[in-house]
């Protein structure tokens, strides 16, 4: 299957943030599958 690169994430009720910052805060590492 394909892959995407997240550049920006906006958690519900919060401001947009860089995806790298979001991933560090939520413990998401390279190769993690989000469903």
TrEMBL record:
<dbReference type="InterPro" id="IPR011034">
    <property type="entry name" value="Formyl_transferase-like_C_sf"/>
</dbReference>
<keyword id="KW-0808">Transferase</keyword>
<protein>
    <recommendedName>
        <fullName>Methionyl-tRNA formyltransferase</fullName>
        <ecNumber>2.1.2.9</ecNumber>
    </recommendedName>
</protein>
<dbReference type="InterPro" id="IPR005793">
    <property type="entry name" value="Formyl_trans_C"/>
</dbReference>
<feature type="domain" description="Formyl transferase C-terminal">
    <location>
        <begin position="1"/>
        <end position="26"/>
    </location>
</feature>
<comment type="function">
    <text>Attaches a formyl group to the free amino group of methionyl-tRNA(fMet). The formyl group appears to play a dual role in the initiator identity of N-formylmethionyl-tRNA by promoting its recognition by IF2 and preventing the misappropriation of this tRNA by the elongation apparatus.</text>
</comment>
<feature type="compositionally biased region" description="Gly residues">
    <location>
        <begin position="26"/>
        <end position="35"/>
    </location>
</feature>
<dbReference type="Pfam" id="PF02911">
    <property type="entry name" value="Formyl_trans_C"/>
</dbReference>
<feature type="region of interest" description="Disordered">
    <location>
        <begin position="1"/>
        <end position="35"/>
    </location>
</feature>
<dbReference type="GO" id="GO:0004479">
    <property type="term" value="F:methionyl-tRNA formyltransferase activity"/>
</dbReference>
<dbReference type="InterPro" id="IPR037022">
    <property type="entry name" value="Formyl_trans_C_sf"/>
</dbReference>
């Amino acid at each position: 299957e394909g892959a995407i690169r997240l550049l920006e994430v906006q958690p519900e009720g919060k401001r947009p943030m860089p995806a790298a910052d979001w991933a560090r805060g939520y413990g998401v590492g390279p190769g993690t599958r989000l469903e």
